[in-house]
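Hey,
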Amino acid sequence: MSMKEASDRLDKVLANNGIGSRKDVKRLVRQGYVSVNGVVVTNPEMHICMERDKVVVDGEELKAKRNVYVMMNKAAGTVCSTKSGPHATVFDGLDEYYRGKFLGGEIATVGRLDVDTEGLLILTTDGELNHRLTSPRYSVSKIYAVRLRDSVSEAEQARYAAELSAGMHIEAEDNAPAADCLPAEISWQGDDSCLLTVSEGKYHEVKRLFSALGNEVVHLKRVQIGSLHLDESLASGAYRELTDDECKTLGVM
């Protein structure tokens, strides 16, 4: 069965969309308060297709969602973790609605950004999309705006570009082993700033690449994932749901 045709138990759909506990919704259904496609149903275990069937609860149509897709402009100083600690998590700022459970599961970040890294972060309940955007198999590009500690001359800029485009070796850091990185593309915006495009998600990859080049990243912001651009109108830490067109650019049905 395709994702578009997926079916779910009626009581699960109702409970996961805020109608009540599983016990509460079973009672509602058995008492005749729920109709599917205009027909009153009394079996809470019947299967429905959310994308095809019209569900009405006590006279109000249910606008159920299988998955949610959120764009956040991650703030520096926050972590991509559900665990509390010395830093706030990106989940702390989400409305309670997004922290609930959907039919697709619970919301999670698509990959991670370091605590001091800002910018584009996708959060979704869609595990298939999450895998596709983060798996090395698909080589989805990520673009970062980088500011460096040291200014770089034109000759050195050319060296950086040549070494990055050939693929570079990065040394071990923390628990991450040394690694050979896939080619990356650099576009200079100034003598100490650039856009860097990578197609992997190795631990601290951007920082380690510039360290290998003899420089240091002092500010890092992700501005694009695949063809999805960060909405620059989003304040630091703010978020919104992706538009239908943005979902399509990511391959969401």
